[in-house]
Amino acid sequence: MEQKELRELEKRCIQEEPPFCTAACPLHVDVRLFVRQIREGKWDAACATLKKTMPFAGILGRICDHPCQLECKRREVGDPIAIGALERACVQLTGRGGKVRCLPGNGRAVAVVGSGMSGIAAAWDLVRKGYAVTVFSRTDELGGWLLGLPEKRLPREAILDQISELQQLGVRFDLREDAAANLLETALRRFEAVCLDLGGIDYPADGHALDPDGAYGVRANPVTLQSAREASLFLAGLACKRAHRSPVLEAAQGRAAAASIDRHLQRVSLTAAREGEGPRPTRLYTSLAGVEPLPAAVMADPEEGYSKEEAVQEAGRCLHCECLECVKTCLYLERFAGYPKRYARQIYNNESIVAGHRTANKLINSCSLCRLCEIVCPEDFSMADLCRQARKSMVDRGKMPPSAHEFALDDLRFSTSEQFALARSEPGRDPSRFAFFPGCQLSASLPGRVQQIYEHLRGALGGGVGLVLYCCGAPALWAARDDLCRDTWRWLEERWRALGAPTLILACPTCTRMFKQHAPHIPIESLWQILEKIGLPGPAAASGPPWSGRSPLAVHDPCTARGEREMRQSVRRLLSRLGCAIEELPYSGFLTECCGYGGLMAAANPALAREVAARRARQSPSDYVTYCAMCRDSLSASGKRVVHILDLIYPSPGGEPPARKGPGWSQRQESRERLKTDMLARLWGERPPEMEEHRKIVLEIPPEVRELMEERRILVEDIQRVIHHAEKEGRRFFQPSTGRWLACFRPVRVTFWVEYSRGEKGFRIHSVYSHRMQILADTKP
């Protein structure tokens, strides 16, 4: 990923955009944090948050005209948060506290003419930057128009306290009764730069003595506040009207003038990177779904303002605006304790590492690539694209750890090998008009149902129905192994043409997506839409609605069916024909959630995959129904009662289909292989090939060991290979006290260890494990 790409991605995540209140504040006070601290009763911390951004919080906190309140998101559901009243309560109920830190003196002198809000704010910022500041005022008291405010609103003591703080920082005050114009001319002669506080000057009655020709007060750059006539003069308070003063805007203009003076004297650009100053719009999105309208907390004494208890109550209404729409809906994003902008940076840094430990591998490989984040994001940020791109980059550069997706890719190789791969026209119908493509996972999970539905299609569709057993290559795509994906589609393309280019009938939503993405020229139809047209098979029609009178079934849509509206509707209409009352889950249809298998999440992060499946399973107490074999098996592994729609079309004579657990990894491969051999024998009269020697070994595997094998992704055939090699070569260890053998074998890239003993019919397995180290025998004497 290039830096430019990273920047573009980061911009699309709006989580770090300022909340509406902060964006509307001319000083950009962190209102969200300030209110949260009050809600938590952290008054000193709240006061520190105010003072971090607000000059003279002791004054401004009492008289701020709070434009932030007008933009408060809370106003859309009740009253806006009384931010101004909370600021006032904070400065009234806490001490002065906190030491002000200043930069060392830089030996440069500047002046401020006028001691109103803009003037003292400019002086505050300039002295903290290391400048020697002198404030000129033509009255014998400091504070300008602030002195005219009612004592109840702004006590004189608060003004004196803040002026005293300025003096302690080294600001000098020059009080004189000279004409205003003389003050300005004097300051311009004596100092390197001057800030003129137009809001803090007592204008002469004729209005001209200050600036007879209008050169200073009328023409100034609206961004830099630099006078059009004098480069060293900066004007503050330009937008402030006497009748409708905005104290916070005046303070912001004083700050802007101070920033311009600093840039002017440092001889750097006065205009660069200033678009963020003052009130500005924000791109932040905050959902109000489920927010209850609430009125503002009532003050017992409006003149005194909020008490601490009342302030805490009022702060408790704050929505603490943020986006996090993707994090709210995706457990994967939540568990890595961040949001897409942070993740983009982590992934970029991970890719940039030349040598050392890559800490973001699990983040990159745990995404299910379901794209729900992109759908709920106001800016269409796709973690799926980001993670898929990062995976591809790491694979192409040889940086992807082999453990991440190896088991899934080995399973893909099995499904595209001669043990499962098959492409035949219907016997006596060559070419066939259609071909059934059940997919590798349905064949692994429900091989018997595959045979039944295939027979129904043959009987109901004219023109012949062929059979294609293969994988669509989704694991290769998810693992960013584009080479394996190309090989998969090359085989499919060749076999499809050899069959006479039939229309493929797909049972799996993932296969549907893959065909549309990789072979859009191949005509496809959904099995469920076909069943709508040709009708349900005999067993379902003869036995009547199998679910009639039972509780509703909650429909789980596979995430790969997100864009397949007609497929989703067909499934629901079929369920209705089957007599099923259905229920929609909170996230369904276009907004459905992943079951935890997609994107190879289950391979790279099994614990997270289990958690994702369990959360999905908790969204309704009802039994679930789905039309994806892996969704059914993933959800059932969490303990949820889940039925595949084919279980309803072909109801079992006994037992509850939803209570059936999914097959283990070994059984999945055995089911695919058995499906192929059964179909070849029954339809085409072909005998299966001779079984390999190691597969003839009979194993006795206790349930606890099978559970261990599932967790560690160890297949029955892996164990058979180890024992076959150990027995044939004699390479094994014997433990006399237990009578057990311990052997290892490395068929490809993983070393498998098996502890076993001889049983009545074969070998009894006591424990298994594996690792990636290679065991080398030392044959030297």
Describe this structure in words.
42% of the residues lie in helices and 11% in strands. Strands 3-2-1-4-5 form a 5-stranded parallel β-sheet, sandwiched between helices. Strands 6-8-7-9-10 form a 5-stranded mixed β-sheet, with helices on both faces. A hairpin with a 4-residue loop joins strand 16 (733-735) and strand 17. The two termini are 53 Å apart. Residues 202-217 have low confidence and may be disordered.
Keywords:
33 helices; 42% helix; alpha/beta; five-stranded parallel sheet; elongated; 781 residues; five-stranded mixed sheet
Distance between the termini: 53 Å
What is the CA-atom radius of gyration, in angstroms?
37 Å
| Biggest sheet features | 5 strands, parallel
Shape: elongated
- What structural class is derived from the secondary structure elements? alpha/beta
Helix content: 40-55%
Q: What's the total number of strands? A: 19
Order of strands in the sheet with most strands: 3-2-1-4-5
Average pLDDT works out at 90
Q: Percent of residues in beta strands? A: 5-15%
| Count of DSSP-assigned helices | 33
Low-pLDDT stretches: 202-217
Itemize the secondary structure elements and their pairings:
Elements: H1 3-12, H2 20-24, H3 31-39, H4 43-53, H5 57-63, H6 83-93, E1 109-113, H7 117-128, E2 132-137, H8 156-168, E3 172-175, H9 180-190, E4 193-197, E5 233-236, H10 247-266, H11 308-315, H12 325-329, H13 331-335, H14 340-352, H15 361-366, H16 372-376, H17 383-396, H18 406-415, E6 422-424, E7 434-437, H19 440-445, H20 447-460, E8 465-469, H21 474-478, H22 482-498, E9 503-506, H23 509-518, E10 524-526, H24 527-534, H25 538-543, E11 553-555, H26 565-577, E12 582-584, H27 601-604, H28 606-617, E13 623-626, H29 629-637, E14 642-644, H30 645-649, H31 665-684, E15 699-700, H32 703-712, H33 716-729, E16 733-735, E17 740-745, E18 751-758, E19 763-771
Parallel strand pairs: 1-2, 1-4, 2-3, 4-5, 7-8, 7-9, 9-10, 11-12, 11-13, 13-14, 15-19
Antiparallel strand pairs: 6-8, 16-17, 17-18, 18-19
Helix pairs in contact: 1-14, 3-4, 3-11, 4-6, 5-6, 6-11, 7-10, 14-17, 20-31, 24-26, 28-29
